[in-house]
Amino acid sequence: MTELSIGVVGLGYWGPNVLRNFYACPGATVRYACDLAESNLARVRSQYPSVETTSNFDQLLNDDGLQAVAIATPVSTHFDLARRALEAGKHVLVEKPITATAAEAEALIEIASQKQLVLMVDHTFVYTGAVRKMKEIVSSGELGDLFYLDSQRMNLGLIQADIDVIWDLAPHDLSILSFLVDKDPVSVYASGSSYVGNPDLCEVAYLTIRYEGNFQAHVASSWLSPVKMRQMVVCGSRKMILYDDIEPTEKIRVYDKGVDLEWDEITPFNPAYRSGDVVIPQLDQTEALQREAAHFVECVSTGSEPLTSARSGLRVVRILEAATESLRSGSPVAPA
User: Fold this and answer.
1) Stretch 223-237: mean pLDDT, rounded?
2) Residue 276 has pLDDT above 90, yes or no
3) What does the alpha-carbon distance between residue 306 and residue 186 come to, in Å, rounded to a whole number?
4) Which CATH number fits domain 126-286+318-329: 3.40.50.300, 3.30.360.10, 3.90.850.10, 3.40.50.720?
5) pTM of the predicted model, to two decimals?
6) How far apart are CA 150 and CA 234, in angstroms?
7) To the nearest 10°, the Cα dihedral for 195, 247, 281, 179?
8) Is the model's pLDDT at 264 over the cut of 80?
């Protein structure tokens, strides 16, 4: 198989990680590193002398030998860069969120479909061993009926200048939620506040996402926490999962805990609490971006749909848009 020739666009915070993993990925060759900052390009030249550096995105588009681009730039630039790359016949991997609006994501999906190109979203956490194990457990029915999902993603910074904390942090949790549940919500309610920066961009936010039936998800995001937290609880009728991404080795714990109510014997004031074993499953320790890069190469080679397809990215953006509208209106909003 001919190696996939790829260019990485954006070498600030996340782009160097993308470049490093594609550089080491079997079946891929990083041909270009593109950025507007000369200091970022100089760093690439010192670490990867075989990679051509440029500040001209058109150079990548005009190279017929370049097959794909990975975009790791601010969200406001995603649509234009991805659109131009797709129209030039390049496969595209784009950082989360896929675009700033659902309409933009739909337009990219249409172009990619017409040109039969792979359009994949960098929802990195979906490729972690922990989240893949959670999906395996949920899909097996081991948890029973799903009751709720509760997620907290907090840190002190990095406060963004162009997007609020919902658009910055929540996509991680929403991509995990979408991967585990794989259905569209019926409503999104958001509340949030700004304290130290742009008053129009909240730094702390809480989302309540409801689905058909009684399942709901709660997502808390904050740039103003004294400690770093990345925790998620998935509660089912039979078992529960605690996912702690900060935990170095035991990221997943499956609790055989719950509440049983036999109405002819037990009242709500005297429930039967069930407390069984706690299982810590063994997890694949492969770096998520390494697995993701290999998956992108495979999808281009086989024409298969990515695990984090553009449609999964669109679902996340629809929830983000509904959350933004809910912040304005103060009421729940149905994702469009």
Assistant:
1) 96
2) no
3) 25
4) 3.30.360.10
5) 0.93
6) 7
7) 30
8) no
